[in-house]
Amino acid sequence: MPHRALRGFLLLQLLLTVAELRVQASRTFEIDYEGNRFLKDGKPFRYISGSIHYSRIPRFYWKDRLLKMKMAGLNAIETYVPWNFHQPLPELYKFSGEQDLEYFLQLAHEIGLLVILRPGPYICAEWDMGGLPAWLLEKKSIVLRSSDSDYLAAVEKWLGVLLPKIWPYLYQNGGPIITVQVENEYGSYFSCDYNYLRFLLNLFRQHLGKDVILFTTDGAVKDFLKCGALQGLYATVDFGVGTNITEAFMSQRMAEPKGPLVNSEFYTGWLDHWGEAHQTVHTEDLVSSLVDILSCGANVNMYMFIGGTNFGFWNGANMPFSPQPTSYDYDAPLSEAGDLTEKYFSLREAIGKFEKLPEGPIPPSTPKFAYGKVAMKQVNAVSEILDVLCPAGPINSTYPLTFVDVKQYFGFVLYRTTLPKNCSEPVRLFSLDGVHDRAYVSVNGISQGILERNKVFSINITGEAGDILDVLVENLGRINYGSGINDFKGLISNLTLGSVILKNWLIFPLDMEETVQQYLSSNEIFNSDPSNLPLPSFYVGRFSIPAGIPDLPQDTYIQFPNWTKGQVWINGFNLGRYWPARGPQVTLYVPRHILVTSVPNNITVLELENSPCSYGGKCFVEMVDKPVLDGPLPKTS
Known about the structure:
The chain is of the alpha+beta class. Strands 4-5-6-7-8-9-10-11 form an 8-stranded parallel β-barrel, surrounded by 5 helices. Strands 30-29-32-27-14-33-28-31 form an 8-stranded antiparallel beta sheet, with helices on one face. Helix 5 (149-166) runs parallel beside helix 6 (194-208) and helix 9 (283-295) runs parallel beside helix 10. The longest helix is centred in the first third of the chain and has 24 residues, at 3-26.
């Protein structure tokens, strides 16, 4: 390059750098303590935000959902970063495709939404183990969310990867992130470890700098703020409809005498559990409370503005052990499928009384299509294809090992031994709550019954000495809140047959994902005579979508008439758990991006208990155009 051209190039680079620095210098987001408010670029600012979890929304629909939030009058969104979603194994990090956090932040920025980021490391969120990766439990004595050295080392390594990715997206650096939460509702946790919070504070400052606002969130109760707040972290509160707003913000004032009032989680609905009634919050009550919050000048984040879906095995559980369903609809203003609701328009109208609403059309609800009934065929029992489900072979152990012991973090593990004695008369198989979470017991392939955590501790079985005893254990989701988050799965203690402790187990960690994607979906291991196969079993069906019709494929929902409980995949994508026998969720949301028109779509079902296909009977699943999330509950639930 000639000297003159080089000098010109360098001058241009210098001018661009100076211009960039000027832009950054003019972008500030800070707390005005005397004015009890935030200042954005030196001017008073109040955020009206809504929660959206990118991990619960298909990437295909991120833009659609964010635009709808913008058009509701929101000027910010809030999202969690689930650690286990991005680091499923100690040496494996995922930040592309559905896990592309940076793309999600860029989208929000382009749409004109600020971001309140909540990177944990613990998030709760009704997400498996509150976002903490299960491999942390390989040290059985670990004290999570504390100054335990092994826990701190893992956190430091994780945040050393995550936070540098976040840094360019801070508001001060030209991005959308205005505040960053450290931990989450720590005051509700038993350890009350201020050294742990100081460790996190120093780590966040090290990676994100001194200018970004770091905050905490706790329930609006004095005792929660006592252990959840720390000097250097701005304390905020959360509360829902029906709370005395003045008293709630007075609790924040105990920790923060001056500064902006902030409700970081204003609940638009509530979470569901299997076997309990679907939860709702009345629109009128929600709007009334929101108006009261905004009228006192407070900042608010609505949790959730769209709930989304616990695809795969990502749902969490609460104590006493109650797992959450696949849907995380939350009765939010945008439905699980991103549909506009009455609640959405009522909130938009209320926000419009305080802020100018954006002009332009609101993106419509996505169309749904009822593809109809899809015939299903029973193809293989789990017990028949263990060589495919567990290609490395079983692990031998005198006593049962947990999921973590065999490095199986989700799904299913099969435990196999032989009966040590004749059981011609029924003999009691017993576990003192050692089954986490649900075990399907069979002898020589014949079902004997189900053991379930906190519910069913024993069943009677029959058989002869030497018969094969199989115990298929399902992980229903790890506890996400409270002291029980170190939630080990599998057979966590011994099983006894009568007075005899069962020993000499073959333990099969089952790779359902690989089996469904590589084998079942391509017909490679169809059973030639599937009639009378024992359960649990796989079933396969196919349906075609016409290629010549405009706007197909469209979103749909799948339901399971006369099926009981299991897992479902479409074209290898793990939709999640169905359990109409327990309710309240009946249908599962099927986003259009997993469907195809070029070839038939594959549906693979793992039915665990009882299907309408038994004994060669005709059976089907059905694709419908309306969700059912408040279905009937069993009388004994």
